[in-house]
Amino acid sequence: MKTEKLLNTIGIIFVALGILGGIIGWSIIDHENYEIATEVYEELWDNPSAETSFYFTKSIWVSEVYSLISVALVSVIGGFILIGIGHIIKNQRELIGQLKVNKEVA
Question: 3-state DSSP call for residue 58?
Answer without folding.
Answer: helix
